[in-house]
Amino acid sequence: MYLDLFKLRELPFRLSPDPEFLYLSKNHARAKAYMESTIWFTDGFVVITGEIGSGKTTLIETFLKELDQDVVVAQINQTQVSALEFLQTLLVQFGFQPFKMKKAEILATLNQFLIEQYASNRKVLVIVDEAQNLSPKVLEEVRMLSGVETTKDKVLRIILAGQPELNQKLDAPELVQLVQRVRLRFHLSALTREDMEGYVRHRLEVAGAEGREIFQPDTFDKIYRYTGGTPRLINTLCDTAMMAAFSADRDVVTLEDVDAAIAELQWVEFSQRPNSAALHLREGVEETEDEDAGPRRVVAGAAPAPRKAAPTVGRIVVSTETGDVAEVPLKVGRMVIGRTADNDLQIDSRFVSRHHCQVVSTADLSVIEDLNSTNGIFLNQKKIRRHVLIDGDIIELGTHRLRYVEERTGGAGSGGIDTLPGAQETALLE
Known about the structure:
The structure is a single chain. By secondary structure, the protein is an alpha/beta fold. Helices cover 33% and strands 23% of the residues. Helix 11 (231-247) crosses helix 12 (255-265). The longest helix is centred in the N-terminal third of the chain and has 17 residues, at 103-119. It is globular, with a radius of gyration of 24 Å. Residues 276-309 and 411-430 have low confidence and may be disordered.
């Protein structure tokens, strides 16, 4: 192979989902953050979709590798199964031998296992990859399992990952109860032109490039034109181009080598491929639940379908000792605040955790909630976990202050954690 010629330790463009090679674009980082949120909450499903080859499986493997030891995981990849086979597979993942059990015994065993793990302070997470293949009956079983709970919490965390058809399946009328429990839906889009170049350089660096320019700069535009920013296609084209350079005894990949690879693969430009237009339209899609209008989609670079614009229900004004530094509008939905760039509101401070807190807004009120941050959130110098925001409230995050400005007509006039009814609290987080 070409490793010696390019002075690399390992193949940089293998198609296997190796977490060591994960490149976190902005969208990949956000999808990973949403997966991580399942560890904080047990209040609903997280659904991650993406086109074939968009990096979903690599993202899942990286997420699993970073989990703490108190998380018990069942990872299911074979999804063309019956409801009974799915439940059996789940029990096998948890160490049982359920093949002679009847369904009632399987369900009882699962329920008992989940309750025991909760009592032992362990979190149970189920990740289903290729979930678009699940039948409606299996999805209904998953929904029923998600309802296992103690007097305080639900005990099962669930991530469904799959191709875009998963969204279409979830939107079917017979699955309306399941969709009501979906807390976050995110579509993992293709890489941008800039991210694609960063992706190629990153994988080469992990493989041992040590800063050497292995792909000439003029190759990247053509690579993007023929791959559309899809990671699996990038890997295939780049690996073939390196083989072409190896055949010509060159230790740098030139435009001529990329052209030779395209000819060998018999590819057309990505824009001419079937369904490529749909891929570009989904770039940057994020879906959140809007009580009044249903699922809301924001599509970067494409005109959204005509619909009533979501009203601004309030504002968060961020300040430090030197004065106001930012102002962010609040709409119905969820806004996550933290130190890293994948948050909705980034506060780059050593006193702020990666994902520090969130503000969840409905048409009636907004609630701020701590996300198990290191330093906590404070109101009137009192540490709080969850609080219904009132106009003028000032929440302290380290050296930063968040001032809440109410903009609803007749908005919540009184707040505090004691005024949040249990049923309404549940609705906020579903």
